[in-house]
Here is the input.
Amino acid sequence: GMLLLNKNGYIYPRSEQASSVLDVLRFAAEELGCELICGMQPFRVTKRGKIFSVDDEFLSDTLILAAGGMAAPKTGSDGSGYEIARGFGHTIINPRPVLCGVSCSDNFCKALSGVRTDAKISLYNENKKLVNECIGNVQFNSCGLSGIPVFQLSWDIGRLLEAGDRPYVKIDLLPETDKRELIDFLDQKNDSRRVLLGTLNKKLADVVIKESLKDTAKHKGESFGTRVAPIIKGFKMHPVKLNGFEEAQTTAGGVDTHEIEPDTMMSLKVPGLYFTGEIIDVNG
Here is the structure.
């Protein structure tokens, strides 16, 4: 009962309103004779024999846990579903925020606040091994980085930080331009600051120039382009934490997928118990 819209592989309702998905599901449930009870927080979920009991008030031979994860807690996703799953013997992979921005330790973050630029961002572990990379609109803010490509890397960043790694990212601020071509272009002008004005955001240009002036002894005798192009093609930043569940769009972690039958989503530990959604250790 809902027309769909495909935007670059992302599927939306034609209305482009999330509430349409809720409404279609709700009306379909009512047509099937389902009773919807809202505003109730289950505190005690048990199973006696083949029958599940919710607060000794609702009885059923099947139970679906679709309690969400911990992202966007204002919507009610407080992690309480994990405790119910644990009560049935399920393993919970440590939940952490994903599809979120990251805070960085670099002292120029405030100077770049509000800057957006199309770029390629590459994530490395502390051993300088490439972990993942994405292309898209990167957003700089007063504490670090945001934007869709950063969101897409947040799972890997969180995993590395949780393991005690010290990851870093390199941002190619001009992914469409070859490094050699960029050097030649930058060396055409005598005024270093002016040559960057039409190339980078002014805030970015200022920070790039300041970074290029560090360790002058090492770069003595190098041309402006030779000194600056590597910074533009590999602008380095250091993530130190994810920005929390309040900002996250989804949750990594949750019920271990090895304990769920993949074709039916039924628990391999408790017959009749099913899982769906973010309560499972699967994230977008």
Observations:
- DSSP finds seven helices and 16 strands in the chain.
- Helices lie at 18-31, 80-87, 148-162, 179-186, 192-197, 202-212, 224-233.
- The CA atoms of residues 170 and 236 lie 5 Å apart.
- The two ends are 25 Å apart (CA to CA).
